[in-house]
What we know:
Blueprint: H1 14-27, E1 33-34, H2 46-57, H3 73-87, E2 97-100, H4 103-114, E3 120-125, H5 131-137, E4 141-146, H6 162-167, E5 168-173, H7 186-199, E6 202-206, H8 227-230, E7 231-236, E8 249-253, H9 255-266, H10 274-286, H11 288-311, E9 324-328, H12 335-346, E10 348-349, E11 351-352, E12 363-367, H13 372-386
Parallel strand pairs: 1-10, 3-4, 3-5, 5-6, 6-7
Antiparallel strand pairs: 2-8, 7-8, 9-12, 11-12
Helix pairs in contact: 2-10, 3-10, 4-5, 4-9, 11-13, 12-13
The structure holds pyridoxal-5'-phosphate.
Pyridoxal-5'-phosphate (PLP) binds at residues 38, 102-104, 128, 130, 174, 178, 206, 208, 236, 238, 244, 249.
Amino acid sequence: MFTAERLTKIPPYLFMTLRNKINTAKAAGIDVISLAIGDPVDATPACVVEALVEAARDKANHRYPTDEEWGMLAFREAVARWYARRYEVKLDPKSEIIALIGSKEGCHHFALAVVNPGDLVLVTDPGYPGYKPSIWFVGAEPWPVPMRAENRFLPNLAEIPADVARQAKAFYLNYPNNPTGAVATPSFLNELVAFARDYDIAICYDNPYSEVVFDAERLSFLNAPGAKEVGVELNSLSKPYNMTGWRIGMASGNPEIIRAIAASKSNTDSGVFNAVQYAGIEALDRCDAFIDEMLAVYGRRREKVLALLHELGWRFEVPKGTFYLWVPVPSGYTSAGFCDFVFEKAAVVLAPGAAYGVNGEGYVRFSLTVEDDRLEEALARMRTGIGQVTF
Length: 391
Ligand SMILES: Cc1ncc(COP(=O)(O)O)c(C=O)c1O
């Protein structure tokens, strides 16, 4: 009686459902290992924690962080330095950058800022489950753009019907990609800018895994000539610095979109705790080596999972980005069916591909964000529990 109609469209958030399943099993005494959620268990860099503690002691930071509505200028300047150093992208911190409470919040405010009720919004399928609810919340409709293995999980923009492209107001996508691990190429980014320009589509390039890349070029959407004319890039300190709980990120690029996001945000939230922004500056300015250390950790875990999958009969093209592995399911299984099978035999939780969209059927996602010993235990159980598989 009190629930708004818009909520009826929105399925339960995937990871809440999985968390409930895990908690129920744990309550029944089962030692569950979750390889489903992408939430690093490793610690935030110590110097970032120190920066937070120091800033938290200063009472000047205890007030609303609204003096500088777009986030502290010092934080936005650190973002500009980070993009200049790591991507050779030049940004004006005063007009082209805004602080976010994480990239998920940015996805939501992008919709509020850019999309009108009744608009079509392109999203990749499979895709990050956060996009569609943001689109529904503003009364618009998502239009799924398929991503397929034969196109290395990049959308084929030429396949999008011209009448759909003409009606579309915006396009949400992310590379390195959650869930497939695929990475973008410079030529794809150029095509994306041309497509957005041709059809007047605002791009929301969500890039929280930009730093998690193996044997491939790190790319920002803003590297593509003309990108700033058509969209923004969201990024986040969550994944590169193990800061998922801290809730800090940034949107950068097109000044009109940044201004619109600011207008929406200033009427909704009051920004990021200043002490967290000071800690964010520390991470952005001084933790490049930490990113490399974590890449080595994920690289080692990847090799362990891949070695087991290979041993059990899997053959597939290994994705180059993110701390996920997107793995085809053996013959005879749906993605949910295979997850149930692995859960039953090994008490290991995987994320079912179908939860990411119809084109995710036939895959499961492994996350590498668990401790090494738990990962090894999960793999040992899978080795004995599921045995050889066929395709
Ligand atoms: C593609 C994608 N976008 C956004 C987010 C949310 O990131 P943040 O912690 O910055 O809100 C995630 C988290 O898993 C993600 O995978």
